[in-house]
């Protein structure tokens, strides 16, 4: 089945093409000789979770050539300005401030919003969300998540608000938006700021509006592994004029003109070549969505009905980028644990990942700073032992999805033998994921 051609731009009026999703064409079986039991690995080369999506190479090359001819590589060049304009237009937000990566965007936004004291944040996220706070001498107060959505639980958030709380950072994990209305209501009630880490959620909607329009500001990551990548990159989007002006100054050392500095700043600029990659990818995101959706649908179809295994779903009434295929393994009902499945997959060269194990609160420096925080995070602790991210993206074809699903089905069908081998090798004492 041919995929849709590159679209000239991301057309918001057109729903993402559904024609490539044909679950009936997917096939998986329960019998495959497993590498962990001595067979040849299913894949010769590693099958990664985060292979970059690449737009039209000829267009990218054209943009890079124009950039080289112009000899303008950084410091607010035309490609960065174009990238910012396009992102802002697509989301329907007034300001986009592009940065060199998502972590720096978070740090700028945290500082720009004057967050200090304590800020409530999930522990079940990539560690950059917490680092962005502590880097600014602000205490991340780890909050538990909703076991269904994997996002901040607003009831738990309210319990953690103290006189020192200046803000909340919600993470739209896996691109599934937080309970925005509840968090906005809390922020308003307690007169604190609300920032969203939308690193996973570019091109996703909530109640029909694109992520990027909520809270005081939202932050995207355009890292190589993200749905839309700029090699490395990030952005802050906001409707707030004064905040946007401050962030632009902070991004570029505080310069307001030649030899004039009016603000404390740093170097957080996106480069022209990164913007070229970002713009080119943006022109292909309908295709990226279509492939991700096909893969997600394939995994869901092929893994359906296996006891104790569940592929996390996306709200069909909204737009999603389907960037993550998240498998939840219930150790009480599944024949193998999440970590046993990881070992089976790794033996086949399938580099599934334990995102976001073990939770920020169990990583340094948080583990030492706040040793008891796990006690208040039962859902985080539970989920971080169960979640597995499977390979997807435009580098993963539907045969790959079938093979991965067949490996999982076969592993469960041969669970006793698989577990015996793992125990014999004591694999579980040295997981590499
Ligand atoms: N907030 C959240 C919620 C985030 O998820 C992230 C980033 C951030 C903030 C911070 O944004 P940035 O500052 O990164 O823009 C990866 C990414 O490095 C990280 O950006 C991302 N989250 C996180 C979820 O995933 P690792 O530690 O898993 O990276 P790594 O090197 O193991 O790569 C993942 C897989 O991708 C590997 O199997 C290899 C493959 N890969 C990677 C790269 C870089 C490729 O095939 N090609 C590549 O070029 O963190």
Count of DSSP H/I helices: 14
Number of strands: 14
Adjacency order of strands in the biggest sheet: 1-9-8-5-4-2-3
Biggest sheet architecture: 7 strands, mixed
Q: Roughly how much helix do the residues carry, as a percent range?
A: 25-40%
Q: What order do the helices and strands come in, and which of them pair?
A:
Blueprint (H helix, E strand, L loop, with lengths): L56 H14 L7 H14 L3 E5 L2 H11 L5 E5 L5 H7 L4 E5 L10 H7 L4 E7 L8 H10 L3 E5 L7 E2 L2 E2 L6 E5 L12 E5 L2 H11 L3 E3 L2 E2 L10 H11 L2 H18 L6 E3 L13 E5 L8 H10 L18 H4 L8 H7 L2 E4 L7 H16 L1 H11 L8
Parallel strand pairs: 2-3, 2-4, 4-5, 5-8
Antiparallel strand pairs: 1-9, 6-7, 8-9, 10-11, 12-13, 13-14
Helix pairs in contact: 1-8, 2-8, 3-4, 9-13
General description of the model:
With 433 residues, this protein is α/β, with parallel strands linked by helices. It contains 14 helices and 14 strands. The longest helix has 18 residues, at 285-302. A 7-stranded mixed sheet has the order 1-9-8-5-4-2-3, with helices on both faces. It is globular. Ligand T4K binds at residues 48-52, 101-103, 125-126, 128-129, 171, 197, 199-200, 221, 223-225, 234, 351.
């Amino acid at each position: 089945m041919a995929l849709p051609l590159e679209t000239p731009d991301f057309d918001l009026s057109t729903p993402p093409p559904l024609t490539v999703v044909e679950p009936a064409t997917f096939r998986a079986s329960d019998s495959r000789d497993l590498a962990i039991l001595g067979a040849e690995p299913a894949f010769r080369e590693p099958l990664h979770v985060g292979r970059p999506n690449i737009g039209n190479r000829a267009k990218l090359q054209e943009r890079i050539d124009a950039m080289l001819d112009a000899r303008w590589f950084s410091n607010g060049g035309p490609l960065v300005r174009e990238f910012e304009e396009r992102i802002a237009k697509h989301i329907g937000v007034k300001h986009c401030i592009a940065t060199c990566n998502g972590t720096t965007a978070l740090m700028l936004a945290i500082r720009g919003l004057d967050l200090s004291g304590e800020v409530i944040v999930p522990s079940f996220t990539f560690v950059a969300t917490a680092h962005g706070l502590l880097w600014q001498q602000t205490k991340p107060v780890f909050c538990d998540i909703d076991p269904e959505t994997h996002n901040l639980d607003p009831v738990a958030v309210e319990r953690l608000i103290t006189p020192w709380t200046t803000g909340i950072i919600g993470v739209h994990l896996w691109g599934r938006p937080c309970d925005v209305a509840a968090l906005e209501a809390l922020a308003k009630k307690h007169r604190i700021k609300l920032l969203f880490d939308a690193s996973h959620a570019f091109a996703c909607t909530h109640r029909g509006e694109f992520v990027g329009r909520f809270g005081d500001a939202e932050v995207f990551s355009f890292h190589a592994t993200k749905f839309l990548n700029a090699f490395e990159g990030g952005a802050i989007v906001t409707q707030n004029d004064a905040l946007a002006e401050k962030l632009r100054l902070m991004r570029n050392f505080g310069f307001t003109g030649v030899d004039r500095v009016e603000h404390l700043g740093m170097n957080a600029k996106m480069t022209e070549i990164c913007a070229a990659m970002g713009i080119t990818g943006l022109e292909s995101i309908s295709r990226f969505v279509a492939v991700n959706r096909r893969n997600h649908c394939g995994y869901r179809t092929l893994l359906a009905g296996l006891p104790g295994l569940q592929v996390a779903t996306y709200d069909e009434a909204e737009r999603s980028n389907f960037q993550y295929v998240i498998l939840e393994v219930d150790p009480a009902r599944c024949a193998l644990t999440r970590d046993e499945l990881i070992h089976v997959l790794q033996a086949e060269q399938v580099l599934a990942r334990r995102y976001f194990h073990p939770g920020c609160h169990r990583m340094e420096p948080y583990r030492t700073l706040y040793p008891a925080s796990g006690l208040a995070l039962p859902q985080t602790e539970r989920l971080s032992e169960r979640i597995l991210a499977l390979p997807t993206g435009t580098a993963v074809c539907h045969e790959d999805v079938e093979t991965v699903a067949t490996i999982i089905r076969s592993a469960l069908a041969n669970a006793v033998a698989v577990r015996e081998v793992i125990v014999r090798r004591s694999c579980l004492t040295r997981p590499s994921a």
